Amino acid sequence: MEDQHVNRLYRQLHGGQDLVYFTVKLKESDLAIGVDAASYSDSHISMCRQELIRLRAQLESYILLHPEFQKSLYPIQLLPSAPTIACVMAEAARLTGVGPMAAVAGAVAQAIGEKLDPMVESVIVENGGDIYINSRRERVVAVYAGQSKFSQRVGIKISAEEQPLGICTSSGTIGPSLSFGTADAVVIKGYPVALADAAATRIGNMINSEKDLPQALQAAQDIPGVTGILVIKNDTMAAWGALELVPI
After folding, report:
1. Which domains does the chain have, with CATH numbers?
2. Is pLDDT of 96 > 50?
3. Could you tell me how far CA 62 lies from the centroid of its own chain?
4. Which terminus of the chain is more solvent-facing, meaning fewer CB atoms within 10 Å of its CB: N or C?
5. What distances in angstroms separate CA 58 from CA 2, 62, 77, 81, 185, one per listed residue?
């Protein structure tokens, strides 16, 4: 299971045959970016890399001034000098009750996606299981839930009208991200993507057994911007909201 995550085989779960995919990596950031074939240009790769460099430099410089931003597990007040991406993360943290770094992957994914939006018809940016999706067609994102029997067997259908949208996943059993719960997968559908990312962490922290699922679904409903949630714990699955599930 560990090797599957490290090799990021789950990236096959949101691949579209009409998309050209490329990766952009920098330090801990590892993005898979899909652009419709008709719009794709090699220049997109260097542009996305430069944008990632810029975003990370802003965050790293801000963290030097405000180390608590990186360490806090709860919402915090920002310094007046905070860059836009830190403000986006802090707002997501405020709405969900977690630390701002819980929103970093989603915030970066959306920022990169929005950089590409004016140049392409369709774009999907995946950053550590957190996805920004904006295209003019229906998409299905399959769910990876480790050893659960539902893993790679159920997908979330997304209509063109719902996009742009965030699909973000937190897991207490897969990957290196900090989680205080043991859910196999908490998938949040919502927007902005930073909000969906932070919400996935918040709800994931609540789940340690199948008995926690009803309470977790209720908590998700109370977060503004969350439109759907799917939770998988062992061989139990629960869902709420505007979520159309399809077999894979």
Report:
1. 2-247 (3.10.520.10)
2. yes
3. 22
4. N
5. 31, 6, 17, 11, 31
